[in-house]
Amino acid sequence: MEICSRAERTSLRCLCNLLFRALAKMFASSTCSLMKILLRLDGFLRPPPVVAVAPNAVSELPCLPQDILMDLFSLLEIPDLVRAGSVCTSWRTAYTSMFTAEQCKLQQTPCLLYTSESIGDRAMGLYSLVEKKSYTLTLPDPPIRSREIIGSSYGWIITADEMSELQLVNPITGDQIDLPSVTTIEQVQPISDDSGALCNYEYSWYTGDKWIDNEPSILGLNELRDLLFDKAFLSSDPSTGDYFVVLIHNPHFQLSFARAGDDEWTWLPPHTSYEDCRFHGGLLYATTAFGEIHEFDLSAPLVLRKVLLDKVKISVSNRIYIVEAPSGELLQIERSNADVEEYDSDSELFKQPTKTSSIKVYKVCLSSRKVMEINTLGENVLFIGRNQSLCLCAQEYPELKPNHAYFTDDDYLDVTQFKNCRRDIGEFDLENKRNKEIVSPQLWSNSPTPVWLVPNPRRMRLA
C-alpha cells in the first residue's frame, strides 16, 4: 500500500535536496545558530514508530513548522529559494511570510546582473557565482536595455531612462519606484517646445563655488544622463519604505540626495570629486578621488560636512572605494588600470579602455586621520564597481575566493562615452596580483554596464 502521496514524496525529496544545499552555509554559520536549527529539526526527522495501517487509511506526513522552514529558507541562494516556494502550500506560505518578518536575515551571494540581445529588451540576465549558471529576469517598462544602470544597493538597481529620469528597480520582485524628477537637480532646467512638451534640458556648469563654463549646455532628453550621472547609492532597503538615495553627479562629481517621498533633490554644495559612498551608523560617508572621507547627517535640519580624513593622495588617476570589513574596520580600496587600445564604432575613435591592473587595500584609522596599506584581505572578499562596495567574509560564502576582489567596469568615460568597448569585468587575486575572467565566453552586452547585485526577494510594503 502507498503510505505517502506523490506530493508528500516530492516535498521530502525537495527538503533533502535543500538541506544538502544549505549545509555549506550552516557549517559556515555560528555553532549556536547551527545547533538551534538541527535541534529543532530533530523531532521532525527522527523516524516515527512502526504501526499497523488500516487498508483504507490515508497517512499524512507532518509539516515542518513555519519558523523552521523560514530558518532553512534564509540559508538558501535565490534560485533554490524560489524553487522552495513552489513545492507546496505550506512551503509557499513560509516563503511569502519570511519577507515580511522583521527578524528575517537573508544571506545572498552577490550575482552579476547584465543585459543581452539574446534575452530581449525587457529582460536581464542574473549570473550566479554559486551555481555558475545564468537566469533570466523580466523587468517592468521602460525596457531595461534602453536605460543606463548607475547603481546597485540592497538588491535594487538605480536606472536612468531615455528621458534621463531615475527609477529604483528590484530585478527579483519587479517592484519599481520613480525618483524625483531630474529637473529638480540644481544644475538642470527643463526646456519646452511651443506646445508645452519637454524637448531639451539646460545644463549649468556650476559646482557651488565656481563656474566651469559660463554658458549652459542644451542637451537632448537622452543625452543628459550620460553627462550628468556617475553613481547612485541607497541607505537601506527601499522595501521598508524609509531610505535615502544619494547621487554622485556632474559637474565635477558633486552630491545630491533625496529621502523616500521627497519630490525634489537636495544639493550638497560646494564639495566635489566624490568617488564612492556608504552609510555607516545612519551617517553618509563619502570618499573623494584624493582619499578624503567626509561625513554628512542627511536627517539633520541643516546638512553640514564633517571632514573625517584629509587628502591622502595627490593623483586622481586611480579610483577609490570605501567599504566596511566584517570586523567593523573601515577600508579604502585603490584600483589602478592599464590601457588597451580598442575601436569604438559609435564614436568612431580608437579608445584605450581601462583594464584593472592592481588593487590595493588601506586600513583607515579615523582617530589618527591616517591610512595604512595592508597586503592581504585575509578571509575577506571585495565586490566593487557601479554598485555599493562590499567586503564580505568568504567563510560565510563558500563559493567565493578569499583575498580576491570581484570587479565590474565603473570608469565614467568608458561606460558613458565608449559604450561599445568591452567592459572591464573579472576577479583579482590580491596575493598573486593577477586577474581572470568571471565567465567565458562573455554573456553580457557592453551597455548598460553590468553590476553586482545582492538578490533581494522582499516586496515593498504598501500603504
From TrEMBL:
Please name the SMART domains in this protein's record.
FBOX (SM00256)
CDD domains membership: F-box_SF (cd09917)
List, alphabetically, the PROSITE patterns matched: FBOX
Indicate the segments forming the F-box domain, all copies.
58-102
Recorded superkingdom: Eukaryota
Q: What's the protein here called?
A: F-box domain-containing protein
Organism field: Urochloa decumbens
